[in-house]
Amino acid sequence: DVPKVPDCRGDSDGSRRGSLCDRLCAAINNVQGDLGDMGCHLHCPHVPPAVSTLSCCQQHSEEVCENCVVKTTLTAENAVEANKLSNNYKFGFKKWKSHVTARPWEDRSEIVKELYSDLNVIRGSGGSALTCGNVFYLLIFGWWLSLLYVLVAAVMFITIMGSPYGRLCWHLAGYFLWPFGKVIQKVEVRQHRESPGGAWAAGAGESSALLGGPTPHRWRPRCWAGTGYWHRAGTAAWLCLGYPVLALAHGLVCVTAWLLIVLIPVAKLSARATSRVLLLPPQRVLIRRLRMTENTEGEVILCCYRAANPYYYKYAVDGINVFAVNLLPLVLVTLVLGYVDSHNHLTGSAVKFTLALLSIMPLSYYIGMAIASISAQSNFAVGAVVNATFGSITELTFYVTALIKGSREGNRCYAEVVKSALTGTLVGCVLFVPGLCMVIGGIRHQEQRFNSRSAGVSSALLFLSVGGEVGTGVAPGLGVPPGWVPTPCPVPAGVFAPTLFSKVYGKLVCGECHNVTQNPLGHYLCHNCHFDLMDNNGTLYYSHVQPLVYTVSILLPAAYLIGLFFTLKTHTHIYDIHISDCHMPGHHHSAVVHWSRWRALVILLLSTLCMSACADLATEHISPILTNSTISQYFIGVTVLAMVPELPEIVNGIQFALQNNLSLSIEIGNCIAVQVCMLQIPILVLFTIFYPTNFTLVFSDLHVYASMFSVVLMNYIFMDGKCDYFQGTVLVMVYFILLAVYFFAPSPSGC
């Protein structure tokens, strides 16, 4: 039975409140969740008053402490966000860190509020203006922007009619040279008639709305006051000669500062200057240095204290992280350059391949955000279908396009690269992703605990996919006598069962053999050995290996579905997740989603389409790299092609680990690895039925043993449900050792 979540308003049961079990659980599982308040609640059973608290814990310590590790209570602002958090703990659902709804403004920290400010807030104390970021602004933008304002001011003075704008540009030159600690304010000008037929002029006794006192005469030219300001000739001169040049310069500054991310305040400064300051009448713009002792009134347009803020990596636009926003134009550049310059007149294949691969990262982020948004706003059935359909779309798109291109060209190298990428994804998600999360999370937390029972489901499915069996294997260059008969040795099965079968019953064919003893019955040294499955017109392959491949491709997805039914239907208590808002009183906000279901669906389809185009470009331009590169094709497949599409998932795992939520960090890697073995590989096999390719479910010995060792090591590390940075370091080091093996390995046959 699942224990109930305690009432946050208090607990009158003295024995429960003073229980040693409660204190032990709170000390062990003080876990920080997505909203900084993900905790663990533990309850001792009700006992008679005669039974002491200590005896309660002695009787139920093992059962209670196990439940303590498993049981988790999450807090959320609304039902949609609560559904997203709950989906993170469901097997087969994409784990997503970012919010799918807008967080209430009052719940945000002062640091985050400052990120989203419009640079029009005057703080009581801005601190010293002499900072590294401000000096960097002066050296990169300030000096030439100020010089440009001086030149525009000179041009406007020459026109005579634009002299008020010339004076404005002159003072703005000083402002943009060093805008920190200065204020630009919109001044309300009072009008009165000097004579029955006179023009409107500013009152002589008008006071500054910013700092008090008389407004300087230079800001109130008599000939420019009045409602007919925009129709005068000086305005036309300004809009034709001055404003376009300055708007272009500020646009360049805005784009550059935005791409640098930490300089986003400079981008906001330039955008606001272009859209507000430069379009105001000169007499309504007031520039003063702000003093702490003076009061401010009226509308403040610009007030900047810092040019750089390192926390802007948290900045999001409509729920999308700023990094993904900045990488989105790269997708457009890649598509235009790839399909317009098809003959490589502008750039080479290496550049286009790199751009196409980098474009996959933001598209993966958008696909993940769309899946999380749809799942959080839909029922369980819809969420499960969307996750199963589009959860592996990033990798499958690349694999399918590569196999199609290899089939058209008759090149087996593409199939070998796909196998390397599959193995690299499996090994990287089993070793590198959880290991890196353990190391980074272990820097902040001495020891991290996770739900070993939920992690055991994924581990069991992985072990089923690559579980130990017996088979044979001969490494190239091994001495082989003429009458050599294969002998059993440890080889994994599961998804590698056809590989095992081919090594047991296949015919060993070697490219070149030399007798090292000069004796016909002596030892032979053979090179480029492999097992031939097409002997006797392919009888072995078509009659035995191919049916086995199809059987495995059906059984593995069936095992995946059983795992879904086990974790989401019959044994949901494994996760024991409870959503509550009791720790955040007064939070009953209505959900304001970033993306509605229809918008998320459209973005999901568009991102998938762009992903297909980028994958097509990557496979189109990878051939010269594979042919001319001195690096093994194995290494290219297991590193670049395997891990680059998984970078958004790695970032999510690191964020979870920093919040002491290692369970989700581990589940991210495990779920991807399970999908590789139980969904992606069977889908590729079934794809070959409708579109014949060179892809066969027979892997090299290097792939088989690397996968087997990785899964065994992962199961050993995750056995006790706790870890530290040392265990994470072991996983990462083993991963790098395997990469070194792939780096020095010879290229696969056919490449």
TrEMBL record:
Sodium/calcium exchanger membrane region domain residues: 351-465, 600-742
A Pfam family: Na_Ca_ex
The entry's keywords: Antiport, Calcium, Calcium transport, Ion transport, Membrane, Phosphoprotein, Transmembrane, Transmembrane helix, Transport
Bilayer-spanning residue ranges: 135-160, 236-266, 320-340, 346-368, 380-401, 421-443, 455-478, 548-568, 600-619, 631-651, 672-691, 697-718, 725-745
GO CC entries: endomembrane system; vacuolar membrane
Recorded topology in the membrane: Multi-pass membrane protein
UniProt subcellular location: Endomembrane system
Name listed for the protein in its UniProt record: VNX1 protein
Native source organism of the sequence: Grantiella picta
